[in-house]
Amino acid sequence: MQQPGGTLSIELGGVDNSSPLHAQFDQLLVFGAATLGGTLDVSLVGGFVPAIGDKFPILKATGGLTSFDAMNLPALPSDRAWSATRSVDTLALTVVATAPVSPADFDHDGDVDAADLAQWKSGFGKLSPGDANGNGVVDGADFLAWQRAYTGSDNASTTVPEPAAAVLAAFALAIIRRCRRWGRCGALGWTDCRFYLAFIGSSSVADRK
Ligand SMILES: [Ca+2]
Ligand SMILES: [Ca+2]
Ligand SMILES: [Ca+2]
Questions:
Q1: For the chain, what are the domain ranges?
Q2: Ion ligand 3 — residues with CB under 5 Å?
Q3: What is the 162 CA–ligand 1 centroid distance (Å)?
Q4: Deepest in the core among 87, 102, 103, 165, taking most CB within 10 A?
């Protein structure tokens, strides 16, 4: 419990708290409910500059928590901003991009990578997420926008589809040929063909042989 006049100081010197002996940022763990008044005072130490996407769960309370009256957050480079999120039991600070790097950054974490492709897949045929060109439908054109903007700067271990245009073109050709061979292009319709074309980018070469 923190009174209205109180201040909780949190220092951030890195993003990795996996080792309890060498924690890089302060974290308050409360067993029970945390009733928070007063001020949260956060500072950066040791020359640490958080990157877009860095997340600091600074406070956890097993019995739930309230919010502070005020938060003093340290300055960030102009392309980043703080976002404070409070769930049932955790108060977290996340560094977000002040502007999306690309309309294909569907998860707004400052890069265009496999996670954004996953967002596009989940929104396919619907309004969102994944509408890179803002025309109100998530389709193959948005996939191509993702592909053009692909940066792959994420450390995720997800297998990332080959973004080369030549590879996509080869797949497209294969699909069209297959449609011709089956003589079903008319029955399939262009929408279905586009559906396949959109998805081949996320399928492996072996699967499509
Ligand atoms: Ca992203
Ligand atoms: Ca679209
Ligand atoms: Ca990412």
A1: 7-97, 114-208
A2: 109, 111, 113, 115, 154
A3: 17
A4: 102
